[in-house]
Amino acid sequence: MNDENRNLEYKRQLSRDERFERSVVAFLNSREGGMIFVGIEDDGTVCGVANPDLVQRQIADRIRNNIRPATMGLFDIGVEEREGKPVLRIVVSSGPDRPYHLKKYGMTPQGCFVRVGSQTQQIPEAEIEALFARRARTSLRTVPAPNQNLRFEQLRIRYEEHGKSLNDRFKETLELLTPDGRYNLVAYLLADDNNVSIKVAKYAGNDKIELIENEEYGFCSILRACDRVLDKLTVENTTSARIGPKYRQERKRYDPIAVREAVINAFVHNDWIDLDTPVFELFPNRLEITSHGSLLPGMTREDLLSGCSRIRNRELMRVFRDVELVEQLGSGMRRMLDAYSPDIFRYTETFFHVVFRYPEESFASRVKGGPKALKGGLKAKGGLKAEGGPKQGGPKAQKVVQKRSGPKAIGKHTASANAVELRIQIAEFLAAHSNTTTRDLAVGFGSARSAIIRHLSHLRAAGVVRFVGPARNGHWEVCRENEANLAARSTTQVATQVATQVTTQVESLLKALDGEVDVASLQSKLGLKERRDFMRRYILPALAADLIERTIPDKPTSRFQKYRLTAKGRAALAVAGNGVAVSLKPSGEAKM
Fold first, then answer.
1. Which of 337, 343, 338, 371 has the alpha carbon at shortest distance from 355?
2. Mean pLDDT taken over the chain
3. What's the pTM value of the predicted model, to 2 decimals?
């Protein structure tokens, strides 16, 4: 067992005097933080703790009530077994608001302590003043939120899922208010709706020239955004296989545990003060995660790799720990280094990068002809064919293109689709749905409009699709010579999807439309929370079928936008009430 040192202290029991709090304050004021073990003698002899659950609660209460500034998210308490006896481990992070002090004595030498070797010593008054002068005056909890009309239903649900509840004072408990009582940036980041964009970008090549996906997972609580990013990266973590001399060898593109820790760290330790957001980028040979803000002042690369716990946003750390996204302070770095070398970490004065490189076979063999085949267009001659890929209509092609089409599928293309696969799906959708605009495709497929335009350019150059009408109000359609070839593949699937799935959704939308109603109210009536999914599966098909219309047609994205039934929609609703299916045959162009 290690001897006591500047980062480690043993205590036989939780004393009744202030010695325990002094040790915690000393670690909070140190550059590296530290650990305290209760139930171990100074010489390392294990004596154990008689009632660990009770002592855990006592420790948490004493740290919260007897130390200032607030320490939420800066400490972690756990139970370990040593020599068959339970002991308590308290991990204390270095705090951002030094000097920390005992509430009873304030910022005086009697209340402020620091770690010197294995000893806890008072801080001289001059050094206390210097530490206070360096304390950051601008933090997430002191900056007012740009929007003061905030709701926290997602946060409340997350707490309830983990057996916890938010009482009437949760705004004060979680430090969601500025000193003058307004919502702060912590509240804004955790609110149900915000203007924080979190995107996962995907590129066709190993550079950033050709963007093939740019999916949005933000504009909601960062807890939910974090979950959605993790789900996306789980889908992208495909398995590659190689036949060895004796056994088949399979390997994921990246270690899921290490990537999970990197994603959570990007959210918790990002410098949010200017609402700059972390970025997640997928390339054929690597995954890059970039967050704003470098190492904290005074922290070295050695501190980082040793698992030294320094927290940039303790308010966010506290919430992420409450909902069990973070398990133990400093554990994330150890998990990443268990799977990868320290070379994955890079940082500059303003950014922190984590780069997970894939095994070579995980991307080079994904497409016949190698990664270069991903950049090609589609050949129309002899049937629709992807360069370096299988000919359309054959059995292998069924594995490349998902068996989804129609309005529901416009945003549900396979998450691991490369550029060629996405172009094939766009062409098939256009074969089944005429009068589709570029904006429709961009919203439906969850891609940037510029990326959709590039794919359509490839298809047009190959003679697969064409643009009809004026540049401002025209639409895309499949060229006649390719229409039969594509329609044969997709028409039956589209009809089935529309009849069995979309009709029910649109009918429920029509029934919810009583007068002019906005999107938020419609989602509330239907019990739906995912806005983008609601727009794709309900609003877009109904607009395309001319069953509903916008109240402000010239400004589709206006925040005052509402929807109402058309004459066709009222007639269709009446027919549906008599047990007859609603017709979803598009009657015109639906612009998102």
1. 343
2. 79
3. 0.51
